[in-house]
């Protein structure tokens, strides 16, 4: 959907730090971030998974996570500063198929000629 949308990954606090609540299927061993440099280093792993996608990193006070209720992953579509789609909280509510459906419908609307009615 790069022809109709810009994408941004936002790396927030680590959901399962290696020195905290560890997940049995964690692909990486990332300790809890003690400073912004820790978070920036961990975010580079995310960049490897999507090298062409812009990446932002949340502040240490987790302002983005709090503002968007990410805890620990969430999908959004924002258009003209308005939330058009808000996925459920992850991991259970993280449904990429819902996002794809929304984008499919949006793309169809963009490609459909609009009808203008003029009353005289």
Automatic annotation (TrEMBL):
PANTHER family on file: IODOTHYRONINE DEIODINASE, THYROXINE 5-DEIODINASE
Name of the protein in its database record: Iodothyronine deiodinase
GO molecular function, one term: thyroxine 5'-deiodinase activity
GO terms (BP aspect): hormone biosynthetic process; thyroid hormone metabolic process
Function of the molecule: Responsible for the deiodination of T4 (3,5,3',5'-tetraiodothyronine).
Entry keywords, A to Z: Oxidoreductase, Selenocysteine, Thyroid hormones biosynthesis
InterPro entries in UniProt: Iodothyronine_deiodinase
Family stated for the protein in its record: Belongs to the iodothyronine deiodinase family.
Domain of life where this protein originates: Eukaryota
Pfam families: T4_deiodinase
Taxonomic source organism: Oreotrochilus melanogaster
